[in-house]
Amino acid sequence: MVVVAAGGLLLAGLALEVTLGLLAVIVALQVLYTTRHYVFTLNRLFHTQPSLYAAIDSGDWPHVTVFIAAHNEEAVLSGCIEALLKADYPADRLCIMPVNDRSTDGTRAIIDRYVARHPGRLTPFHRENGPPGKAAALADATDLVVVRGDSSLIVVFDADYLPEPQLLKQLVAPFFDPEVGAVMGRVVPQNAGTNLLTRLLDLERSGGYQVDQQARYNLGAVAQYGGTVGGVRLAALADAGGWRPDVLAEDTDLTFRLLIKGWQTAYLGYAECHEEVPENWSVRFKQISRWAKGHNQVLAKQLWPMLSQGGLHWTSRVDGVALLGVFLMSPLLALGWLATSALVLFGSDLGINANLAIWLFIGAASFACLGNFAAFFEVAAAVHLDGSRQRLRLMPFLLVGFLVSVVAVTKATLDGFVLDRLLRRTFTWDKTVRYRQALPPVEGPLAP
Prior knowledge:
One of its GO terms (molecular function) is glycosyltransferase activity. It is found in: Membrane. It is a multi-pass membrane protein. This is Glycosyl transferase family 2. The chain is an alpha/beta fold and about 450 residues long. The chain has one domain: Spore Coat Polysaccharide Biosynthesis Protein SpsA, Chain A (Alpha-Beta Complex), CATH 3.90.550.10. Helix content is about 50%, strand content about 10%. It contains 14 helices and eight strands. An eight-stranded mixed β-sheet has the order 3-2-1-4-7-6-8-5, with helices on both faces. Helix 2 (about 75-85) links the parallel strand 1 (about 65-70) and strand 2 (about 95-100). The longest helix is centred in the N-terminal third of the chain and has 45 residues, at about 1-45. The chain is globular. It starts with a helix and ends in a 26-residue tail after the last helix. About 45% of the residues are buried.
């Protein structure tokens, strides 16, 4: 009995040491991420913001091909095409290429009618087979652009985006700098006023783009190419190895491969474009899960190449690690809450004076340091910078989105790193639901 009791105490003591060590690591990571977000926020609030390319409105504009990524996008595709046809860009140096990726709805018919109605303005790319996914479709379309040989740049929009006339010139202007390999604009929700969720996502986007992205670019950290409302230099894309169809987050993957190869990514906070955001929580849950799986996939692929690459500035290297690891924080925080709960419930038996205040502190600190992909003080700073302070009244509701994100990201991380591999599950793409009403059918014959 004495031996059993001693063994039980030994195991309990070991469990206590592991729990306390885990909490120490989690708290240390919280401190690091909180410091990072405060640095970004202070930079945006009190430092002069460079706008190296904003004044460029004339020049020898290069030939550019604009991809519209479209898979079953009959509800929104017409709006994007109509917007691009009004672009303030030399028509003889612009190729609009809708990339129809194996659509089974009316997407192909819509594209063909626009091609017939606007001869010479659109070059359709109908992809009828091949591996699924946006990266695979972009890779095939890029091969066609390379064969044609007329464009040195590509710009990418998802089909639900509504670019303003001046946006193309804004996105292309940084490429006059030969060191720029990619550019990224700011995403603004078009349906922000629909319901509580869309308003919260509007706040999240503001914090992420107005503060987080802009500060990273200002500080020489890792400016991120976001896969839409962005452009890529074909020479840089080829140097980085092209699009990789085996990754879910082709944008994050390309961001780090360009970084490793020494190309710069320019973030343009003034180059705004409107998108649709999810209007119900189930769609949002699936969207976050897809992002988390894709991001963690890039973490596994690019962490060591980035750390081992010589010549990177220390700010890029440190911020690169933080950016790659951001989706791991949700499962770690969830684990921290479980560990703290165990201390609250059983700590007194082991001589630990733990109470509910510790659990509440860990939870509050988690929300403070990460928030809903942008720390709450980053969101507040973004609202101030945007000049729309009435949105501050929604700040307490961000906690709801934060909790949903923690659950979704934690589940996606466990699936991606453990369950999908053990059960040999293949990834099923959950297409984001569209809400905007389709434009009236385009008049005119089908293209031959």
